[in-house]
Amino acid sequence: MMRTVGADHPITLGNLPAKVRKCLTLECPAHYAVLAEDGRRLVGFFRYEYGPNGTLRARGTWVDPKERGRGLAGALWRHVLKSAKPRRVWVKTVSEGGRGLVSALVREFPRIKWTVV
Ligand SMILES: CC(C)(COP(=O)(O)OP(=O)(O)OC[C@H]1O[C@@H](n2cnc3c(N)ncnc32)[C@H](O)[C@@H]1OP(=O)(O)O)[C@@H](O)C(=O)NCCC(=O)NCCS
After folding, report:
1. Is 32 helix (H, G, I), strand (E, B) or coil?
2. Pocket residue to mutate for ligand 1, from 59, 101, 105, 115, most atoms within 8 A of Cβ
3. Do 92 and 59 contact (CB within 8 A), yes or no?
4. Quick one: CATH architecture of 2-116?
């Protein structure tokens, strides 16, 4: 199950469960997040916000270690990119998995102007 939450949700605020903090540090709050849940269990999220000129800024992606490698992070991103249709995306990658994920998305969405740092 995927659902989008706003700036009042603990994930967007940056109040992250311990299992997330083990592998991802997120310093600033975000405006939105799309969550993947299995019942009440959080299995993944993609945090983001909108900037000027049709820019979407990524603010952190995480998938539960047990669920990785099955396309979940890609599905979370795709869900947002297909509905928000940003002209530009800004994303900072902090891991090999993050770099793999973003290069796959860059190939899949060639019309978006990507800034990857
Ligand atoms: C990075 C992360 C979100 C990927 O989640 P995932 O659900 O396993 O990713 P997906 O299965 O959707 O993979 C999407 C693409 O990324 C690639 N990818 C995923 N993990 C990768 C890895 N460790 N190394 C290289 N490529 C990787 C996949 O090959 C896939 O590309 P493809 O569509 O061409 O096959 C997950 O490993 C994670 O939560 N890591 C810890 C937190 C983190 O580092 N977040 C990213 C910060 S930039």
Report:
1. strand
2. 101
3. no
4. 3-Layer(aba) Sandwich (3.40)
- Angle 46-49-54 (CA atoms, 0-180°, nearest 5)? 120
Tokens of 45: 């999220």
Atom of ligand 1 nearest to the CA of 77: 12
What type of residue is 61? T
What is the rounded distance in angstroms from the CA atom of residue 92 to the CA atom of residue 58?
7
Ligand 1 binding pocket includes 4 (Cβ within 6 Å): no
Domain ranges of the chain: 2-116
- pLDDT confidence of residue 80: 98
DSSP-derived letter for residue 68 is T
Regions of the chain with pLDDT less than 70 = none
CA of 32 relative to ligand 1 center, distance in Å: 20
pLDDT of res. 73: 98
Atom 36 of ligand 1: nearest residue by CA position: 63
DSSP label of 66: G
Token digits of residue 87: 């002209």
* pTM (predicted TM-score): 0.96
